[in-house]
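Dear support,

I submitted the protein below through the web form. The confirmation email said the job was done, but the results page showed an empty box. After a refresh the structure appeared. I'm attaching both so you can tell me whether what I see now is the final result or a partial one.
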Amino acid sequence: MSDETGTPDTPAGSPDGAVPNGVPKPEPLRFFGTTWVNHDNGYAARRAGVAVGSLAAAVASCLVLRFAYEGIRIADTGAFVTVLIIAMFAICSALAFRNTWEGFDKRHDLQRQASLRGLLAIGFVGSLLAYFLRSLTEAPGEKLHREEYDKAREDHARRSSRRTGNPSKKKRRR
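What the results page shows now:
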């Protein structure tokens, strides 16, 4: 797992994450473990908890930003600074939402993620809202992990399938 971004270095179901007999195993998702595979062991309750938790965190974050806005207004820094700060949080939140939402469908480039870390930290409200919206339909990242896991299982099944019969005794066409 990458320490910088918190994302795994290998796709779900990769050979590196295989059990000893070579069968791919699913990659655990944050808050869900491997319950996303069969939707068992409290998957629905976890999804509801993630949805409520991310929405509550977004609301609490907006309240904190409101206090920050009030502090800037009390400091009387001027309209220009106030507009710049509001625009900064709005733009960074929109970019963080888009980046987080796209991350549910495809793996991010680690170098790009590292360069966007500061911007994404400022726009944390957008990331929380993307997490909330995605958790209404599935575990965030489940679609990507399911595609990778299914592909890894198909590849393994294709590699491990056995031929029937002895090919040297095969009748030749004349």
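Response: this is the final, complete result; the empty box was a page-load delay. The helical segments are 43-75, 79-103, 110-115, 117-122, 124-135, 142-160.
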